[in-house]
Amino acid sequence: MSRGGASISDEEWERFQKEAEAGAQGAPAEPSARARMVTRRLQENTDRPQGWRTHEPARQRRGKGWYGVGLLVAAGMLFVALDPGRVTDWFGGGSGGDTPLAAESERPGRPPATEAAAQQPTLQQPFRGSPAAQWGDGTAGITVPEARATGWMSKAQVSQALDKSRDFLAASNLDSGVLLGRPPEKAIALINPDQKDVQDYLANAFRAPSRDDDPLLLFSRFATEKVRLVGDVVKTRGRITYREGKRGAVEVTTDVTYVYPVAHAAEGRDEVSRTIVRREVVMSWDDPAKVITEPGTFSLVSYKSDTANGGCDNDTGFYVPEFPSARATGPGTGAEVDPYDRSTSMDARMQGADDGECGTATRS
Question: What is this structure's pTM?
C-alpha cells in the first residue's frame, strides 16, 4: 500500500483493517458503489423507427444522503457527438465521410447532422451512413486531459490514474476477446477487490446474468453463435474528466460512446448492423490511508449504460443486435431519440424518459 507515495507496512495496514471493522474514527472505509441504474435498450432503425424498453431493477434507490449500500444498476440514453460548428458536410459522397473530427473536449452544443443517415453499412464500409465514420479508432477517440496534482495524488500519480482509467475502458469495451464473450479479466483486475457489493455483482453477472446483475452494464459482449464482428475497428468518441472526490480521492468520470459493426454469424450473409453503446463510469482512486483498497485499483462510484440495437428486454449477458431484414414492425410508444446525440447528458435524458415504454430511435 502507499500513502501519497510513502510505504505502509503490513502491520499498519492490518491495524487499519481491524479499526475499520470496529468502526474506529479515522480508519480506512470500505468502499461501496453508489449508482442509479435504469437500463434502456434502443432497437436499430433503418426505415421505420424501432422501440427500446426501459427497466428499473427492484433494488434501485433514490434520494439523497446515501454513499453506498449495495450496487444499483442504471443506464441513460446513448448520445454520440461532434464539436459545435462541425455539423456541415459530414460525409463526402459515398466514401462515408472519413475526415477525422477534432477530439471532444467538452459536451457539444447540438446533435450531429443527419444528411447521410440513409446510406447503409457494408462489410467494406461498416460505418457508412453513421457519424462514427469520422470518429477515432479504439482509444484514439477518447480524450484524456492533462494531469495536475489533485487530492492525495501528485501530478505523476494522477497521470497514472488517468492512463489506468483508459486501460479499463479498453479492457472492458474494446478488447477483441471480451467482445467475443471471454471473461474481462484485465478489466476486473483494475477494480478494487475489497469493494464487496461490486465483487458480488461481478460474480453473479457472469455466473447467472439477470436484470439486476447484467454484465452488459460494464462490459460489451456479443454471442458468437449469432453474430460476428465486422473488421477489427471499434469507433469511439468521448472524454475523461477528473476532480477531487470524497476523502481526498481522485474521482475520474468517463463518458464514451462505442460503435460496433456486426454481421450474421453464418458466412455468406453480408447484412451489416451496428450496436451503439454509451457508458458513463465514475471511478474513485482512493487514498489507502482512508479507504480500504489495493494498489493500482479503483472503486466504482457509479456507472450508467445505454445501448442502441443491443436487444430489447435482453438479460442474456450478451448483446443481441437486430438486422434490417428481421427488424420488428411497428413504432415505439415513447418519444423519438437520436442515438448519436451527445449534446444532452445521460442524467437529463434519463429524467425525461418513461420507464416501461418503448421509445423511437431516429437512426442507427
Answer: 0.76
